[in-house]
Design brief:
alpha/beta, six-stranded parallel beta sheet, 7 helices, elongated
Length: about 190
């Protein structure tokens, strides 16, 4: 069983939850998470943050349960999400949040930020937490692995992701263009 945390974003180089007192409330993979592994998708460009996260995993005694993946090739992302129990995307700065939509489209429960566009994109089909709120993130991860897992894995995420499919987006834009055109010809 696997829990994925995506750090492949344009976040600050040193997010508060990653060091200096951060993530000390992370669920214990041995007890709280039912022996799940933590899969970390890490930004190859930020060696300092990765080193701090590795040191934190050692300090918390969970290093043996952490798998450092790096980037997942595009052709393997759907399989990756399908094999993941929950996908966490604690973003500070996103415009659309494609990774959470990709995870939802694959039937993977999502935990994401309650800031920027994430709540709107999630549309109730993900658990939200402040990206700097360690306890809220820990609680959301536990809920996504437990009582909320079936709801998030089932129709909620799949239906929400379907609303963002390119064909549907194109249809919506075409409707807007038709309305504008019809308004001009009145």
């Amino acid at each position: 069983m696997r829990l994925a945390i995506n750090l492949l974003t344009d976040e600050p180089a040193n997010p508060p939850w990653a060091h200096g007192g951060g993530t000390r409330t992370f669920p214990d993979p041995h007890t709280d998470l039912g022996r799940r592994q933590l899969i970390v998708l890490e930004p190859p460009r930020d060696k300092t943050c990765t080193a701090e996260l590795r040191a934190l995993a050692d300090e918390l005694g969970i290093a043996a349960d952490v798998v450092w993946v790096g980037e997942v090739p595009l052709e393997e992302t759907a399989t990756f999400y399908r094999c993941t129990d929950v996908f966490a995307y604690p973003s500070y700065n996103e415009t659309i949040g494609l990774p959470i939509l990709e995870a939802m489209a694959s039937g993977c429960p999502v935990v994401t930020s309650d800031v920027t566009s994430m709540p709107e994109v999630a549309g109730g089909a993900a658990l939200l937490a402040g990206p700097e709120d360690e306890q809220a993130l820990a609680d959301a991860l536990l809920n996504a692995c437990g009582p909320e897992a079936d709801r998030l894995r089932a129709a909620a995420g799949l239906e929400r992701a379907a609303e963002f499919m390119w064909a549907r987006t194109a249809e919506r834009r075409l409707e807007v263009f038709r309305e504008v055109y019809a308004g001009r010809n009145r």
